[in-house]
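Section 3.1: Structural characterization of target chains.
Under the original work plan, the team committed to producing a structural model for every single-chain target entering the pipeline before any wet-lab resources were allocated. The record below documents one such target. The sequence was received from the expression subgroup and is listed exactly as submitted; it comprises 146 residues.
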Amino acid sequence: METRDQKGGVLDAAELARRLNLLLDFEEAQRGTPVPFASIEEFVALRGGSLSRAKWTYMLSGDGRRNRDTELLQILAGFFEVDERFLLEDSDVPERIGAQLALVRSLRSARVSGFAARTFPGELSPEALRRIAEVLEEESQRGSVA
């Protein structure tokens, strides 16, 4: 009987999804473009793992069972250059990721505010646009906009 020292799959599916999406957001903020699935798939394959698009979508959605594939989670941690414990167990957000969260949230808020301004040209006063930005910032501070 094989025993493992790793706690692989301790995170429930929803928390793992939240962390993976956080890492994707961070990478997008760093690169300026979304991370293509093909890049992740290739990285995993080169390290002897396997990741289908269906499984990746399932992992990102957070629906279903807890992921117990320790090896895959370790490989994904390598792709995102974070300590594997972040995907394997209940641990803190890596400092470099946490530092970028405010920036990612601000960028998203700015996109939403810009969308509102473009959608209602001339219909929204500067005060209304400021209020939209304030609400988004308040929600971001509470963690609702992530």
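Residues 95-119 form the longest helix (25 residues).
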